[in-house]
Design brief:
The protein has 9 helices and 16 strands. The protein has a 6-stranded mixed beta sheet, covered by helices on one side. Strands 2-5-10-11 form a 4-stranded antiparallel beta sheet. The chain has 342 residues and is α+β, with helices and mostly antiparallel strands. The site of ligand DP6 has 15 residues, from α5.
């Protein structure tokens, strides 16, 4: 009853920011992302065993407690319920990139956890069921359960049965596309996404306009991805990211995730695009200051050069489009048979 999965974050080109149901994690709008290749990844092992005395979870080798533990146990509880088992659970999860700093560690973490927990319990869930399971812990995680280009359909049903990710195109559809992540700050963010987006929904006047505009932006993005139309994909990515961050600024009290380094990156990319006479890169920022620079492989060096010269850029991760979660061999397990981290 032990299983280990590797999953990767995803980068949203049309963002999810705001829930219509917080308990079931149902979004206000549909969103579109691509799942990243494995230069950034989470590995998670789950063990259900009657020999365990209590539920335990380790994140990056540190024992978790409080809210962090509760969120991981939420997935374990749903799986235990579905599988009709009452065994205690041990979970160990490790990221090879900064946690909770706008590189979607919750997306890869909960996608890996949903896959490993359901597999450890022998549930054999299909991708739609896995996406719904991951969504219950963190919205964006429902997109990381699938590879390639993904749309999270917001759904209409009250119980969230139709709010899950679907693949628009596999990773092989556009292998030239990269997400060059420029790390502008690797610490934890001050306000978490859940609290931040709830506050935006409640207090931002701009937000209603965003929700009104999104269906047409989503349709354009879907079509641009299908056509591998980089100019439109980059333009819409920047437009949607800036629009989401504008609603954050319009939140009372305001939420500011971008820092002066992020602003420097925006300027550098605008200059690069202007000097090339076309868009060679589109920037997009999640709930953090780190830039996701979307560009094609042939332009990665150029994009990197224009940003690397800025002060305070700590590191780059160059990610291609990834194929989604994979099951790892038993020897890769992060847990011993007794449920202790190895
Ligand atoms: C800005 O999925 O972290 O990255 O559902 O409350 O856990 P919760 O939020 P989360 O929000 C991600 C927001 C975003 C945009 C996106 O990935 O679509």
């Amino acid at each position: 009853m032990v299983s280990t999965f590797e999953a990767t974050p995803n980068i949203a080109l049309i963002k999810y920011w705001g829930k219509r149901d917080s308990k079931l994690v149902l979004p206000q709008n549909s969103s579109i992302s691509f799942t990243l290749g494995n230069s950034v990844k989470t590995v998670t092992s789950v063990l259900f065993s009657d020999r365990l005395k209590e539920d335990v979870a380790w994140l990056n080798r540190k024992k978790t407690s409080g809210e962090e533990l509760a969120r991981m146990l939420l997935i374990a509880d749903l799986v235990r319920q579905k599988a009709s088992i009452s065994s205690k659970v041990a979970i160990a999860s490790e990221n090879n990139f900064p946690t909770a700093a706008g590189i979607a560690s919750s997306a890869s973490g909960f996608a890996a956890l949903a896959c490993a927990a359901s597999d450890a319990a022998g549930l054999g869930l299909n991708p739609t069921e896995l996406s719904i399971l991951a969504r219950m812990a963190s919205g964006s995680a429902c997109r990381s359960v699938l590879g390639g280009f993904v749309e999270w359909k917001k759904g209409e049903e009250k119980d969230g049965g139709d709010s899950h990710a679907v693949q628009i195109a596999p990773a092989s559809h556009w292998p030239e596309l990269h997400d060059l992540i420029a790390v502008a700050e690797s610490g934890r963010k001050k306000i978490g996404s859940s609290a931040g987006m709830d506050r935006t929904v409640k207090t931002s006047g701009l937000y209603a306009k965003r929700i009104l505009d999104l269906p047409s932006r989503i349709a354009k993005m879907r079509q641009a991805i299908m056509l591998r139309d980089s100019q439109t994909v980059f333009a819409l990515s920047m437009e949607d990211s800036m629009n989401m961050h504008a609603t954050m600024l319009d939140t009372k009290p305001p939420i500011l995730y971008l820092n002066e380094r992020s602003m420097g990156i925006i300027e550098a990319i605008e200059e690069l695009n202007a000097s090339e006479g076309k868009l060679v890169c589109g920037y997009t920022f999640d709930a953090g200051p780190n830039a996701h620079l979307i560009c094609e492989g042939k332009d990665v060096a150029k994009v990197k050069k224009s940003v690397a010269k800025l002060h305070g850029i700590e590191k780059f991760y160059d990610c291609i489009v990834g194929a989604g979660p994979i099951k790892l061999a038993a020897k890769e397990s992060l847990l011993s048979e007794a449920g202790k981290p190895v």
